[in-house]
Amino acid sequence: MSTNPVLEAARPAARAVPVRRAFQLREWLEREAVFSWLMLTPPLLFLLAFLGYPFCYGVYLSFVRRPVAQPATFVGLGNFVNLWSDSIFWQAVWNTFRFTGAATVLKLVGGLGMALVMHQNFRMKGVTRALLLLPFIVPTVLSTVAWQWILDPGMGMFNRILMYVGLVTQGPSWLGNPTLALVSVILVNTWRGLPFFGITILAGLQTIPTELMETATIDGAGSWQRFRYVTLPLLMPVIFIVTTFSIIFTFFDFQLVYVLTGGGPANATHLMATYAYSISMGGGQMGLGSAAALAMVPMLGLVLVAMSSYVRKA
Amino acid sequence: MARSDCFRGSTSRRDFLKLSVAGAAGATVGADWRLRTASAKPAQITFLRESSYVKEFDDYFKNVLIPRYQQDTGIKLVYEIVAAGGSAVPRLVSIVESKAPVDAGWVQQEWLYREALLDVSDIAEEVGKQQGGWYPEIKSLSVWGGKWKSVPFGNIGQTMVYRRDWFDAAGIHTFPDTWEEFLEAGTKLKKAGHPYGMSMGHGFADNNSWLLPLLWGFGGQVVAKDGKTITLDSAETARAVDYVRKLYKDACIDDCVGWLDPANNKAFLTSQISCTNNAMSILISAKRDLPDMGKVIDHALNPKGPKGRFHSLVPVTHGIFNHTPDPEAAKHFLRWLMDPKQVAAWYRSAFMYHAPFLHAYDRDPEWDKEPRFKPDQRVLETGKLVSWPAPADRKAGEVVNKWIVIDMFAKACTGVPTKAAIADAATGLKQIYG
Amino acid sequence: MVGELTWPRRLLGLWVPLAALFVFALFPFAWMAATSLKANAELYDPAANPMWIRHPSLVHYIDLFKETNFVLWIGNTMLVALVSTILSLLLGVMLAYPLARMRFPAAGLLAISVAVAYLVPQTLLFVPMADLINRMKLGDSLSAVMLTYPTLLVPFCAWLLIGYFKTVPRELEEAALIDGASRWRAMTRVILPLCTPGFLSAGIFAFTLAQNEFLYALLFLNTSTIRTVPVGVTGELIRGDAFYWGQLMAAALLGSLPVVLIYSFFVKYYVAGLTAGSVKG
After folding, report:
1. Taking the CB of residue B315, how many other CB atoms lie within 10 A of it?
2. Residue A83: closest CA among chain B residues belongs to which residue?
């Protein structure tokens, strides 16, 4: 037993040092900023690689003239100038705004109604909810094919019913008349997206504590007042999120129109997404097509900014 | 009658001899390959095509050609099918742009990416020489700068498809020969409850196949032969537009102004229309699913206008991508494919749905099996590319893919005055052609 | 809903609107079902009723299974959707949690840039995306879509989850931290479980979007055996200008119904009304 007093004295200190260092690491990890950034790094890296890079490339493309299989030549804002004087482009812009606006309003109101109805107690609730989601679940390509038949002038269900009821002798041309074509496209989009609104808002409804509703009833509030002053304000965050997402999804919608009308008749249903696509893939102009697609972004951004400032005020 | 039959017989016999000699030559080409060093072979060759309307055509490739190529050369052939109706083009563009591992294919819309295609002049010239020579018009698509960038295959014939029984009932016993007669007949038929259904929507074939020939027949043209001068705004075009408006109002079903390519098939098979412009698909579908209707369907050539009878080609051409790792192997494959030993049977497996661009097949016995398909062969005599008379370059492709001319007619039918519709189209053209 | 559940009220407030919803959402499916069970001749018959089947036939279903790789396509679709969803939820939580609950520098800016990055349409991205995938030698593989789908799903999952995370009060987390739990523990044991409805919502929609996607699947899934339902079905059941309507509708139904079954199972687990542990007053 070597009793070196210096060593003896040093031992507890030596032991104490590593413990303090480990404690420091954990403490450092617990700091809010560190924890947050560590959590954020993997998703951010992923998004940067798979979303950021293609996006930057797309932005770059909109400033060059780039026919397929040919090298790029810088044109600055040339593509955008080209689009500015393109009447089909402006038709597509106008169509996109009308399409998105109408469909979103219809989906929101319908979805809210659906959520309120579904929030009651009844048997087979789970199956019902799942079944009502079918329009959203079925691949758009396939349901749109079905809608081609439903909107058929002679064989389609709409016109068959209209003729049966006697409202018309010959059903309207849902996809031939330019106005009706836009209506049809809005209708199919609403049909597809309404369950999405409904189920999400329903989930939001279900997180509202029942005590709040009970308290309101005890305080004498009728169902409309309960809805307006208790339910609706509490639902706002969920409504805001689902509406925002839906506006983006609808603004960029491509498949539905592409399959149902191809943008016709005579560009009556051409959306910015379908037009950008036809410029790139049909005209082989990747630069101009990217510019048309990119033009969607600030427009959509403005819409969303307007929306969120309105919500913030309210 | 007997003499012409003899003549026909001897011609086809001559062609047959030609073909079998070529076939023997082809077989030795295949054998040659085996003699090359094994290490020079690629592992596989990927061939991309849009799924064919005639399933037997795809099946023939998969079940007969792929095993045969494997046997002849030891190379695995992969057949990639993309959906029709526009899916092939983004796939092709992305292949070209990202140099994906596809070696060859049906180079739809080749005007978009000709620069990325391999020079196949030797193959095309040889095939042409062997098999009766090429129809001149298709050279305007495949030959560029003196070099063949694709090897033509066949034309998907677009003709007038009509209900003989309804036409007979209305007192029209031969299909109208001029556009004026066509309008008259349609007016009668619409009154009898059997309107025409002429596609004018954002499709890819059934709209161009009658509107462009109509425009040309009236003497109108989109862009001149020099590929620069826009000639759309003319009195002839105005006459064509007025005609189409009248046809729509008096003879057509309302819906057709928004029809994509499958819509007229659907309308015809559900007995809603008496006539449309289409490929063989309606007749083939009817024979299979609605045999009674199939008996009374017939094909006819497009009516003629003051300046002649025209048809619009829907060409199928095959090309090889520049970025293929082994150009020699890819070229060998294409040569093998277009060899009569392979291609003749492949053509026939689709009932000549793709009318061969080679004169050797003009009187092929396959055409005799269904006489109603004969017009689809005769389309080649007056068939022009959609860009005609301008060169088939990217700009012409853009015009077609943005439906500039189609929309001009469609707008006229939905209430826009002729002058305005033409002016809109001209503005669109100016944007493209500068 | 709290209120008197009298008979007429229930009829008007529940059964009538529910019936209307059912009709609105499902009538096309009734047509699809009828069409999938009709031979082509009856489908094209103008005298026939679109919703009634005179001579039911399973020929389209049989052809679908016999002549196409439909079973493989369904398997691929489910696999891709599942993996993409899990990946997206994971990345979504990692993105949403700090942005929703933590205060740290640049939080606001990051939230906005994630939101802005989401405003990018597929029509702009798909060509560079194809280039990227091919460079990584992932072309013609399921991995390609499993990696690219989260780019469409993660921002949405993150957004939705931020909303749900924000509804759980800070006091809960702070209480847990005071009790000695680490942030990690507080997150995984206290906060995340409370947001299960949020996960289920986000998961359901991520799964739905993934199995519905078309453009990337078209570009990256080239061999028939690895295709998903949307691309496989349109590739082989749409030939030229001929649609194999009966088989297409059979595929649509068979492709969606399993998903509906799965959903009906999960939807049961929605926590109806959070009470215990939640904020009171």
Report:
1. 25
2. B431
